[in-house]
Each structure stands twice: as structure tokens, then as C-alpha cells.
Please model this.
Amino acid sequence: MLAMACAVLLAAVLWPMKQSDGKKLPQKSEILSVLQEQSQIATTEVTIRKMGVYDSETQIASLNPSKWKLGKRLAVIPVDVTIRYGIDLTEMKESDLQFVGEDTVRIRLPKPKIIDKSYNPVTNADEIVTLSTGLRDKVGETTIQQIKAMAFEEVINQDEQLRRQLADELTHNTEAVFTSLLSTIGLHPVFI
Model:
């Protein structure tokens, strides 16, 4: 974030705000260079809660409720998976920028993708619902971590579906970030 602020400040000082002073607009390569210094910009964050279930009969963690069997479960474990979507600015090319008028630049943004993904491996015992009787062993930390890893992979494997659901928000947030970034140097972006 600090690098982004420095780059914007530098751009604002070095680049003209408008052509009215007789100065030239920045070159596409200069704009692209400033943008690519940021590398990746995360614009949307989503947290998805999955419920992992430990099945005492098979000793396998099952995340599919249709496979749960009454009386066989030992524990239900919630797993919060956080995904940050954004764009990789290093994928942009000069051909993705085109000046249209005095202070307007047309931008073709790369497709949003996962910038970061994570889940909390620390177990909160208060969130685990135990359904066992005294005759069954408690679910151990190793099994809990296995269930969390499975939930994480299941959410990440649904990435394309999530992106479709979040498409409008991803587009809106990304355009807002770019509009803010470019307006500091006197440019108005138009997105295609």
C-alpha cells in the first residue's frame, strides 16, 4: 500500500494534470509502468464458511451432507475460507491503454483472479459441535486439520463459479480503484 501511495504521489508531481499548461500527457508506457509497480491489486474479499463433518464409521472427513449417516457422526467443524480477488497488473500491455481525448484513457483490464487465499488453521474448540457418545473417541487435532484442508480445497475448486457470482462486484471495485488511482494524475479512465 505504501509503494502504491509513493507511486501515485510521484506520478502526481512529475506528470501534468492537464494539457492546458502546454505540457504533454504521460506516455502509455509511463502509465503502464506506474500501474505495474503495484503488481497485484486485490479488490474484493469473500469469506465462505464450510461445515466439515467427521464420520466415525469410515474415519473419513466428509463435506457432502448427502453422505452423512445418522448416528455415525462424531463432530461438525466450521471452516472459514477467505479468498481475495483482484487483477494482476503485470498482465497489462500498452495495447490495453488508449488515449481518447485530452484527459481520458480507455483501459482494458485483465480478468480478475485469486490474489490470495487462506483459512485459519487454529482450532476454536467452542465452534466444534461434538455428536459422539461416551463410547467413541474424540476427534483429534490431526483429523480436524484434515477436514479444514478438505474444506479449503473444495472452496478453491469452485473458483470459477464464485467469480461468476461476484462478477459485478469485482468489476465495480476494480474500476473504482483505477478511477481513484488515475484521477490523481488528471486522467479519467473509461473501461472496456
Q: What stands out?
A: The first strand starts at residue 40 and ends at 55. The chain has one domain: 22-191. The helical segments are 2-14, 28-37, 141-157, 159-165, 167-183. DSSP finds five helices and eight strands in the chain.
